[in-house]
Amino acid sequence: MDRGPRTVRFEIPSSTLVRLLLVGASLWLVMRLWPVILVFVVALLIMETLNPAVQWLEARRVRRLLGIFFVFSGVFLLAVLILTLSIPSVVAQAAVLLEREPVLRASVADYLSHYHLSAPFAEWLRNLKYGAPGNTVGATAFAYSLRIFEIGAYGLSAIFLALYMMIDRDRLRGGLYALVPRTHHLRLSRVMLNVETIVGAYIRGQLVTCLLIGAFTFVLLTACGVENAMALAVFAGIADVLPYIGAILSVVPVFIAALGHGTTTGIVVLVAMLAYEEFESRVLIPQVYGKALRLPSSVVFFALMVGGTLMGLLGALLALPIAATIMMLIEELRVDLPGEQAQVADTELRARDDLGEEEYERRTLGIAAEQAAAIAVEISVDRRNQDLHPGVSP
User: Helix or strand or coil: residue 11?
Assistant: First the structure.
């Protein structure tokens, strides 16, 4: 029996509409404030990198404000010294490399033209043209100058913000803990400690690996008699900020520069750089970063691609600590992933969490949020020390 067409009515609850509007407004606000968010993230990186040095001075009875002054002054003087000693030489060598680029490219093309497989690439090198017309050089230089000025302004803002955050650490931490229910204070303190460990290990690892590959490249090229070794070494160090990928990128210009001194020199430099890249990825990076990141190679490459696609070089730089932080949050917040079965260790961790929260609530009964935050950090540090040294009593 035909009852006629049916009317289907979709009703969306008002609460759902409010949530959608709030999500949309949040996304719009994030897009508008994206530069400010990046400044805040960079300030956090600076703060967490320098904070261990300040804590080391505090442990030796140096007042915190004085320790912050010593650390920032030392970093500033070291940066000025490095820039003063290296920038003139690097700029001069880079200018020489740019002047010699046509001759170097022609010599590489002549070398590749002797082989059947590489002959098309040699022809492409000979016919390579750089596209910018002469009348656009001024506009391009002006645009880059504005961009450099903008980056410098954001960088200075991040440095000063990190300085203020380190000075007002206790007050800011107390305000944050006042916004979070006390039942989550211990978990928050553990998350903050883990973030500090991840960021500190990442930045220190970046500095060590970049300096080592720069020094290795400089010594190798100097020993092989390749000119402009300093400029090429600085490029290798800068490229190495991208773990695994940067070392491979640095091989190409170094090999091309060495190839201009003969096939034997080029092969020696290529083999040495590839051997160092293998040593860095297999031995150096796991040792330097330790267990702070704990990212599989597949996650590293995926995070680098996502960060580079979304935010360019800065996104690639921030990709690994952000990925490590996300994995840490999944583990710390006890997020049950699909297909994951409960383990005995997870049950024991939850029991320890409950005991720690009971102790925290007992010790912080009736005290201010700033003092409670300090107690939460103390309990979390003791627990981390127990996890690292199970046989040692706190």
Answer: coil
Identify the residue whose tokens are 């600076």. 46
pLDDT at 83 over 70: yes
pTM: 0.69
Count CB-CB contacts under 10 A for residue 312.
Answer: 10
Round to whole Å and give the CA distance between 367 and 359: 14
Q: What is the pLDDT of residues 223-272, one digit of tens each?
A: 988 877 888 888 888 888 876 677 777 888 888 788 777 778 888 988 99
Nearest partner of 245 among 272, 277, 215, judged by Cα: 277
Alpha helical stretches, state H, 290-368: 297-332, 344-363
Q: Is 183 exposed, middle or buried (0-12, 13-18, 19+ CB in 10 A)?
A: exposed
CA-to-CA dists, residue 388 to 184, 196, 219, 254, 257, angstroms: 23, 16, 39, 42, 47
CA distances from 347 to 182, 334, 341, 382 (A): 22, 10, 11, 20
